[in-house]
Amino acid sequence: MVIKNGQVWLNEGFRQVDIRVSEGKIENIADGIVPEDEEDVIDAEGASVIPGLVDVHVHLREPGYSYKETIADGSLAAAHGGFTTVCPMPNLNPAPDTPEHLQQELDMIERDACIEVLPYATITKLRMGNELVDYAAMADKVAGFSDDGTGVQDAGVMREAMAGIAKTGKVLAAHCEVNELLRGGYIHDGAYAKEHGHRGICSESEWREVERDIELARATGCRLHICHVSTKESVELVRRAKAEGLPVTCETGAHYLAFCEEDLQEDGRFKMNPPLRGREDKEALLRGVADGTIDCIASDHAPHSADEKSRGLDKSAMGVTGIELSLPAVYTYAVMPGHITFARMIELMAYSPRRIFGIEGDIEIGARADLAVVDFNEEFEVVPEMFLSKGKSTPFLHNKLKGKVMYTIANGKIAYDSRKY
Fold first, then answer.
1. What is d(CA 127, CA 212) in angstroms, rounded to the nearest whole number?
2. What pLDDT, in 10s, does the model give residues 17-28?
3. Nearest CA to 379 among 342, 346, 332?
4. DSSP state, 332?
5. pLDDT value, residue 407
6. By the 8 A CB rule, do 278 and 260 touch?
7. Is the CB of residue 101 less than 8 Å from the CB of residue 95?
8. Element (H, E) at 208
9. Residue 386 has what DSSP assignment?
């Protein structure tokens, strides 16, 4: 395969060069590469060739909930979004809390995934926050450990978990949420909730556990990655931890950079956990992605059935589909207005997650050929029919975004070709 005529992202800048891919690797990067067969040419004229993106927080729903999503559908949706590696969370049935349960998921990935899928194992048995799992037995097969969907409530259990995971060198990806502070809430505890009679989730329910887990990371040396940061207090806590040199990283999602509670509507497509917060929180998140406090953009892609998302803010399931829009949303809402540079977007969505989680890939000779060809000049309207995911619920519905993925090449093979969809 030869990718010709594109602007290739090399060393934080674009160059118009060709790329030859052979046996899953980048064989050559040069001007005027002559293909052996014209059928093996990808014409990237007018488009950008960037590193394949990495999403360290997705839900592929298998095993256990295939009516919401399958690994086949979810990995193809990820390829549609320009992603060549994704890390699915363990809120599954069975949960990957033993080597045997993890193997069920790995077998499905091997059979059905069109890109690299590196799953998480759980922190505790059944994600119940009580009994620890055997970290050493699963460490070499997972991206890290997480009980995503629930925070580990007991500080003693979390400290013991961090000590055990630290010995493996893997990342603990923490869903930070204090259950006793939730009080039945389902959107942000702000002006919209008060004006419309909804029960709110206070910001402290997130940042209080972020604060606790940073202290435990200090005590244990565990590599702590904080999931889906949404509050200004959490951003500041992470900023201070980094200034101390603690092994703490974090992520946020594109929807938190684009929307806040002022954009809420009485529709389940605006319901996710953590919720869309206040304008000051959104502004703090934009500053955090710009200054390096926030390390990654992760979609928290959480597909549900149409029925589960049709019950309004109160009764709909938590979570929205996101992986197919993450790149164009960040480009449209963060790069184009000047909040971050194009280089910073690539860092957040390709390079930084690779470094944190030990995932290979770059645009250089000899590297695994994980690439995305994207036309950042092409604008499109977000409609449910465009999604390859089973999940169709998104707060970006009918928004106009720029950045259409034309091809995704994963491990040297075309995982997504826009001409076929």
1. 19
2. 999 999 999 999
3. 332
4. I
5. 98
6. yes
7. yes
8. helix 204-220
9. G
- Name the token pair of 258: 């684009």
pLDDT at position 99, please? 98
pLDDT one-digit tens code per residue, 382-413: 999 999 999 999 999 999 999 999 999 999 99
Q: Which residues of the chain have pLDDT under 50?
A: none
Short-list 139, 68, 86, 124, CA closest to 300: 86
Among all residues, which ones are annotated catalytic? 300
Which amino acid is residue 273, in one-letter code? N
Q: Phi, psi at residue 270, to the nearest 5°? A: -105, 15
Burial 2-16 (b: 16+ CB within 10 A, else e): bbbebbbbeeeeeee
Judge contact between 326 and 297, C-beta under 8 A. Answer: yes
Q: What is the pTM of this model?
A: 0.97
The residue assigned the tokens 């052996």 is: 36
In angstroms, rounded to a whole number, what is the distance separating the alpha carbons of residues 92 and 345? Answer: 31
Q: What pLDDT, on the 0 to 100 scale, is given for residue 37?
A: 79
Cα separation, 8 vs 111, whole angstroms: 32
Q: What residues contact 210, with CB distance under 8 A and at least 6 apart? A: 174, 176, 226, 229, 233, 234, 237, 238
pLDDT at 12: 80
Q: Hey, which residues does 296 pair with through a beta bridge?
A: 251
Supply 343's token pair: 């280089």
DSSP-derived letter for residue 207 is: H
Quick count: other Cβ atoms within 10 Å of Cβ 32?
7
Residue 353 backbone phi and psi in degrees, to 5: -60, -30
pLDDT at 38: 75
